[in-house]
Amino acid sequence: MSLLEQLLKQHEEIVAAIEAEKTKGRIEALVTVRSLCKQYEITLREVKPYVLERKPRVGKAGAAVAKKHIVRKTAVKRARGAKK
User: Fold this and answer.
1) How many CB atoms lie within 10 A of CB 62?
2) Residue 57: which residues within 8 A CB-CB, separation 6 or more?
């Protein structure tokens, strides 16, 4: 085996170990969160606004783009002419 092959193998092993540790930490965190929610009787309705953080919209250039305001036709009032 060449040095490059050995390093690539080590890299794959390290990446696999990192993913395993992330998964283990995530499982432990979920167990903690569930137990605290039961202990303090916290409902999903109370937690949901903090959990669902939305990502900003990204345009073609990669910068955050504000949502476009669209005026709908139904929102525009049309004046009627007087009856004859």
Assistant:
1) 7
2) 64, 65, 66, 67
Q: Which residues contact 65 (CB under 8 A, 6 or more apart)?
A: 56, 57, 58, 59
- The tokens for 20 are 């395993």
- Judge whether 27 and 19 are in contact, CB under 8 Å: no
pLDDT in tens, 17-28: 999 999 999 999
- Give one DSSP letter per residue of 7-67, joined into a string: HHHHHHHHHHHHHHHHHHHHHHHHHHHHHHHHHHT--HHHHHHHH-PPPPPB-TTSSB-PP
Output the pTM of the full model. 0.49
Alpha-carbon distance of 33 to 43, in angstroms, equals: 12
Three-state DSSP class for residue 78: coil
Specify the 3-state DSSP secondary structure of 71: coil
